[in-house]
Amino acid sequence: FSILFAVALRRHFVVHADEFNNDMPPGNLKGFKFFLRTIARKIVFNKSLSFLVCGKRGIESAISAGCPLSKIIDFPYVIDIERMLKESPKEIPKKCESDIKEKRNIIMFSGRMIDRKGLQTLLLAVSKIKEDLILWIEGDGIHKQMYIDMSIELNINNKCRFLGFCQYDTHAWLMRHSDII
Fold first, then answer.
1. pLDDT tens, 15-31?
2. C-alpha closest to that of 108 among 134, 145, 128
3. CB 141 within 8 A of CB 112
4. What is the model's pLDDT at position 161?
5. In whole angstroms, what is the distance from residue 43 CA to residue 48 CA?
6. DSSP label at residue 179
7. What's the rounded Cα separation, in Å, for the pair 60 and 66?
8. Residues of the chain with pLDDT > 90: what percent?
9. Predicted pLDDT at 122
10. Which of 5, 62, 111, 180 is disulfide-compatible with 117, CB 3.0–4.6 A?
11. Composition of the chain by helix, strand, coil, percent to 5
């Protein structure tokens, strides 16, 4: 609604999306919902300055949604190193503090817990590594419990720290103290 409001007010705007959902809407009135989404997208695509998407999948989904190629910009995630080095969290996860004191090798995963982020592959890889290491897993998502269960099944739950969503100051601290991100 805010984007359509910007259209109505003739305000300039840019949209960011990892990728567009181009599946048929769920539930009742699928066809009607699809029709409304298509009309809304045509208006937004026409009036926007550009669309920031992430990577090949994002570009392909924007094209599939009807976005003109001339308005699509591949916008990768970036890290502000100066800001990251300055951030200091109010609370540090206790297990993470212990991992540092014990001089453990630390691998960090940060992201939504969805299929395309690759956490399943990382958990499988960690299960094959014999060296002493710890996996800090920052983030949340629809598959969080599945990944927790997977770490138990792979017998690596003692190596995994499921930290949930972390604010930027904690995120920055975790990155600074990780060996591999």
1. 888 888 999 998 899 99
2. 134
3. yes
4. 97
5. 9
6. S
7. 10
8. 65
9. 95
10. 111
11. 50, 15, 35
Question: Which residues, in sequence order, are bridge partners of residue 110?
Answer: 138
Residue 123 CB neighbours (<10 A): 21
- What is the distance between the terminal CA atoms of the chain, rounded to a whole angstrom? 37
Q: What are phi and psi of 172, to 5 degrees?
A: -65, -45
* One-letter-per-residue 3-state SS of 5-48: HHHHCCCCCEEECCCCCCCCCCCCCHHHHHHHHHHHHHHHHHHC
Q: Given this model, what pLDDT does residue 114 score?
A: 87
Mean pLDDT in residue range 29-34: 93
Chain-centroid distance, C-alpha 45:
24
Nearest to 154, CA basis, from 132, 129, 176: 129
Element (H, E) at 100: helix 94-101
Average pLDDT, integer, range 31-35: 94
